[in-house]
Automatic annotation (TrEMBL):
The keyword Cytoplasm applies. Belongs to the RRF family. Residues 21-184 form the Ribosome recycling factor domain. It comes from Rhodoferax saidenbachensis. It holds the Pfam family RRF. The keyword Metal-binding does not apply. Its main location: cytoplasm. This is Ribosome-recycling factor. HAMAP family: RRF. CDD domains: RRF (cd00520).
Length: 186
């Protein structure tokens, strides 16, 4: 593995960490409805647990209501129960074949709790990025030890790795601040 390979791998893995953070932040609800909120809810479908999106059509009725349209008639009650039993604090109601999932208004206290969750997610992503930095630096040190790279190459690579780390940490901070702003907006 060369120094260039290490840098490319590092960038790719750090970008994946940012992608994972974005994905996790979409699941934290603001006041608005988002069908991605229900991605974690599993429904019993003939003995196997499946995500709701694989047994029903999810869409928005308005900015505060998600509609769930089961693909099979008998699944409505199971989907409704799965949403109610999830830890999302949602209370679905069915209207014939359609299940409506209204987003409850958020209290100030709940908003503050969610900002703490967002900060925790951000910190976990920063730790992941810093661990990637450490792994890359150790890989470069191993190349120098095995006489496959010079110490000058090591210094340059460590500087590049630090720049990549700083860039990704700034992006994480930006994403966290943006999500906190979304949550605190009334």
């Amino acid at each position: 593995m060369s120094i260039e390979d290490i840098k490319k791998s590092l960038e790719s893995k750090m970008d994946q960490s940012i992608g994972a953070l974005k994905n996790n932040l979409t699941k934290i609800r603001t006041g608005r409805a988002n069908p991605a909120l229900l991605d974690t809810v599993q429904v019993d479908y003939y003995g196997s647990m499946l995500p709701i999106s694989q047994v029903a059509n999810l869409s928005l009725l308005d900015s505060r209501t998600i509609s769930v349209q089961p693909w099979e008639k008998g699944m409505g009650a199971k989907i409704e129960k799965a949403i109610r039993d999830s830890d999302l604090g949602l209370n679905p109601s069915s209207m014939g074949d359609l299940i409506r999932v209204p987003m409850p208004a958020m209290t100030e206290e709940r908003r503050r709790e969610l900002t703490k969750v967002v900060r925790t997610e951000g910190e976990a992503s920063k730790v992941a990025v810093r661990n990637l930095r450490r792994d890359a630096n150790e890989a470069v040190k191993k190349l120098v030890k095995d006489k496959l790279a010079s110490e000058d190459d090591q210094k340059r690579c460590e500087a590049d790795v630090q720049k990549a780390t700083d860039k990704h940490i700034i992006e994480i901070d930006r994403l966290v601040a943006s999500k906190e702003q979304d949550i605190m907006a009334v």
